[in-house]
User: Fold this.
Amino acid sequence: MKRRIYFDMDGTLSKWENTSIEIVARPGFFISRSPVSTVIGALKLLLDEPSYDIYILSSVYPNGYAEAEKREWNRKHTGIPEEKQIYVSYGTPKAQALSDFGGVKSNDILIDDFSFNLKEWPGIGIKLYNGINGTKGSWQGFCIHSNMNSGSMATQIKAIIDNT
Ligand SMILES: [Mg+2]
Assistant:
């Protein structure tokens, strides 16, 4: 069985900025997020591995355009196919969104910048430290940092997968 790896978008694959809800809800916000080149580079290295199955798992405002903008963003920056992009409304646990996809297995990986998402994930969580999060020190599990180079990041993710 291939190991499944789910990548968060906001603050993980794309740069996040703490801003107002009004700005986040505006058309054009998500499509204009800058890519985090080191994390996207690691994702692309992992995509080359036939033993992994890679997905996007991202929260969206159900406003009619956030998901479309995120799909467009992925077309531009990651190349992850449409059917492997899974979007969940804000407030819904990410694992719940996967019930239509067979649920979460205990060895499914989630790479996310938000400890809350990692803590409620029934599989294996890897926290992405991005320079603005991690201030509370609430996560004690596996982690990577966006200032690593893509090769080291991919190697570290593979090592976690091999050991879990
Ligand atoms: Mg995030």
